[in-house]
Amino acid sequence: MPSTAISVFYKAITENDVDYVNGFYYKVDIDGNRIGPVYSTNFVGIIEDNTSYREFIAHYPRGMNLKLYRKDILLAEPRITIDQRIKNNEDLIFNLFLSSKINRVMSIKDIVAHVVVRSGSASRQDYNPEYWLFILQWLDDNYAKHGVYKKDLSFS
């Protein structure tokens, strides 16, 4: 993470009264060498309502290392817990479950993370079909309590 990311996030949240801020990132190898382009949401600005936010997250389900959330959003009930057996896509699940609490989001063009690409990491693993069926069943058992709609689970 760039040394200025937290202060850039904090300034954006406090000056714009948003629920969270997200930014751009690029990938690096294990030695810190940049790999490929800057990744973004292709959107810079503020999303003003929950419906637009749900559409946004369906198209840009980025990791939590690219965001800073307001504390009261994170602590609002029901609290979000992810089954510890879920080793991949937990960021996506967390963001889906948080979606009912989000009404105003800001996307900034600042680089806020350098994502390290590691062979053998959880995101680079092959998972068997039973694992994915477990995740789908777990989602089905839990999404209603967090105000997630069926359409929120349909990614284009």
Q: Mind explaining what this structure looks like?
A:
The protein has a single domain (5-118, 126-153), classed as Spore Coat Polysaccharide Biosynthesis Protein SpsA, Chain A, CATH 3.90.550. Helices cover 32% and strands 21% of the residues. It is built from five helices and five strands; from the N terminus they run αβββαβααβα. Strands 1, 2, 3, 4 and 5 form a five-stranded mixed sheet that branches. The two termini are 29 Å apart. The mean pLDDT is 84.
Tally of strands: 5
Q: Which bin fits the share of residues in helices?
A: 25-40%
What fold name stands as the CATH topology? Answer: Spore Coat Polysaccharide Biosynthesis Protein SpsA, Chain A
- What about the largest sheet? 5 strands, mixed
**Structural class, from secondary structure content?**
alpha+beta
Examine the secondary-structure arrangement and name the CATH architecture. Answer: Alpha-Beta Complex
Q: In percent terms, what proportion of residues is strand?
A: 15-25%
Distance between the termini: 29 Å
For the residues shown, what is the average pLDDT? 84
Shape: globular
What's the CATH H-level superfamily name?
Spore Coat Polysaccharide Biosynthesis Protein SpsA, Chain A
CATH level-1 class:
Alpha Beta
How many domains in all? 1
Low-confidence stretches: none
Cα-based radius of gyration, to the nearest Å: 16 Å
Count of helical regions: 5
Q: Could you state the order of secondary-structure elements as H and E?
A: HEEEHEHHEH
